[in-house]
Amino acid sequence: MSIEGCDIWDRNPDVQWHVSAFQAPRNGADHTDQVRRLRELRARILYDNGRRPDFRDASGAHVDDQELDYGAWHFVARRHPNGPVLGYIRLSTPATGELFQSRAHLGELQYERLLAAEGAGIDETYEHSRLVVEHRARKLGLGAYLNAVAIGAAHHLGAKIMIGTSGTQDGQDQFHGRFGFHPVPGTRCYVERYTEEVVILLHRTSAGAGEYTDLVDRMRHRFPALTTGDLDAWTAPGLETYDAPAALAAAAVPDRDEWQPVLLEPIHAADHEALTGLLESGRVTAVHDTITTQLAELISCREPGRRYAGVELDQKIDEQLAGVQAWAYGSWVWYPWSGRLVHVLPREEFRLVRSDRNREKIQRPQQRRLLDRRIGIVGLSVGNSAAVTLALEGVGGAFRLADFDELSLSNMNRLRAGVHHLGVGKAVICARQMFEIDPYLDIEIITTGLTETSMTEFFHGNQTPIDLLVEECDTPYVKIAAREYARALGIPVVMDCNDRGMLDIERFDLEPDRPLLHGRIGDLRAADLPELTAQAKADLILAMVDAERISPELAAAFGEIGRTLSSWPQLASDVALGGALVTSAARRILLGAPCESGRFYIDLDTLIAPEYNTAAALDGVLT
Whose CB has fewer CB within 10 Å in the chain, the N or C terminal residue? Predict the structure, then answer.
């Protein structure tokens, strides 16, 4: 008797995994090797480095022998058609209903009563079980995908209800709940073999599959394609390997340190010579010259009531050039990290045009005042949003950036950067981004972050102290030490916590004796931190962020750090909002507008609520 099987694999973006299926008949000898392999796979994953010791015998072999395997459908998943198996699930049909795990768990009488209460017969009841995923493939959606495949197959085969046992320790029961399964009351109990409590779950196919209904429907339609194949459909010959292309092996390592652009004004002989040499060097990858368009915008900004065009516009541009050839007007900016060479207006004209649409909100005299200020920013993950927004809005013409860290992939859920920036210092990335907005900025970076030795350099620089500190770091010592330094120098501090839109302002320029962090840390000093216990440091962080006011999501995350979470949860939308809040506060402080010390919440979850809907009354009139 043969094993029926086939593959699901296409390039459709919603098919992330390669799935193979086969049904092992209840009798016969030609399926022994396949069943042995899948049992070993399941047992090894369930053993989980000793968490469930009953899945390994005295000889060290992984064992999960169940008669239920014969007559069941088996689904295995890989990343690639010839890749290793990464996940598995079993679907048992009514033909083996007397062997169901849920039936054994409940007992014959309770099982029959449950089916009767659901109005389902034994021949309409299917059981899925043994969902396992290799550690290296977890958290990628494979478990949900396999679950949908098995449920979709049951729907196709005519299941009225699905039943199964589920562990509870890692939230497996809640995972199944997202597919429309619900616990059967009174069935939760501890099972020694699984070293945890398990519960019976039930699913009515007529009710859909919860949040995965659409995916299950797609899998139901695909199931017929799984029912033909050969005996070895679930085994794979292995991935073919190839040598890396020679061009990859010879590729140069990208420059991770360059962050300052080169500005050349070709009306000067030395710069003309340097520009010529640069173009001949082969280091320029692209030339961007829109100077004529920029000149037209400049004229429009100066004379907004006139609309010059054609010959008249050409005459105005010639007047602006005043005898200088267009190609030589202004500056050519070379960005060595990208190889781009960009032609821009001279500094004052460039800034006049770039900030023209700030007017009425920030008038030109205010714009010039802001550009005379120097802002220090420490912590350039969350702080990147603030730095870039400050540069965009023209709040600050000089910046001092400090961060010791390099960009990692997990930072890219909130830090605006490209994958080509991975491994590049966050201070370097931030400086590059700001210079690409305004090449005339004055930026300094400190790639060691803030330490005892770099603190003076950060606050004073080369005899040019900062006018405002934006503090966005994670380290308690830096948070306190930087504030001590700022208070001693009378420098205001702004901080965004990217949770509930919390903005913190400390006006040490107006209140030189103000307690740090509004008195939330008492008389604690940075020098005291090395003496604190781990628990005391955790309590300190909670005091800093005001544990009474943090969002429920962040509060729930505290106990999960290092267990189910690798670090604090943060969202790009919250970080982007924080950049806006910091910039608004910085602008007010630097322009002398009202902006007092305090802690403020611009909580979008609260503000985007029905009671704040200003269109509600109008909607009522329209309907």
Answer: C
The DSSP 8-state label assigned to residue 253 in this structure reads P
User: Are 370 and 395 within 8 A, CB to CB?
Assistant: yes
Residue with tokens 């201070």: 427
CA-to-CA distance for 40 and 30, rounded, in angstroms? 18
Reported confidence tier of residue 210, pLDDT bands at 50, 70, 90: very high
What tokens does 264 get? 């050349």
User: Do the bridges between strand 374-378 and strand 398-402 make them parallel or antiparallel, or are there none, so unpaired?
Assistant: parallel
| pLDDT of amino acid 555 | 87
Rounded Cα distance between 163 and 174, Å, is 15
pLDDT in tens, 477-519: 999 999 999 999 999 999 999 899 999 999 999 999 999 999 9
Residue 315's Cβ-side half-sphere holds a number of Cα atoms within 13 Å equal to 5
- Burial tier of 326 (Cβ tally within 10 Å: 0-12, 13-18, 19+): middle
- The count of residues in the chain is 623
Pairing type for strands 502-506 and 493-496 reads antiparallel
**H or E stretch covering 167:** strand 161-167
> Strand, coil or helix: what is 556?
helix
Query: CA–CA separation, 378 vs 401, rounded Å?
Result: 6
Q: How many CB atoms lie within 10 A of CB 360?
A: 6
Q: What is the pTM of this model?
A: 0.82
Burial of 211-230, coded b for 16+ CB within 10 Å and e otherwise, reads ebeebbbbbbebbeebeebe
CA-to-CA separations, 428 to 150, 390, 437, 590, in angstroms, rounded: 49, 17, 15, 26
Spell out the alpha helix ranges (H) of 330-409.
347-354, 364-371, 382-393
The torsion angle over the Cα atoms of residues 264, 268, 269 and 270, rounded to 10 degrees, is: -40
Residue 326 CA to residue 292 CA, distance in Å, equals 7
Whether residue 213 contacts residue 204, with contact meaning beta carbons closer than 8 Å, is answered with no
Which pLDDT value is given to residue 237? 55
What single string gives the DSSP state of each residue in 401-425?
EE---B--GGGGGTS---GGGTTSB
Which helix (H) or strand (E) segment is 2 a member of? none
The H or E element containing residue 434 is helix 426-437
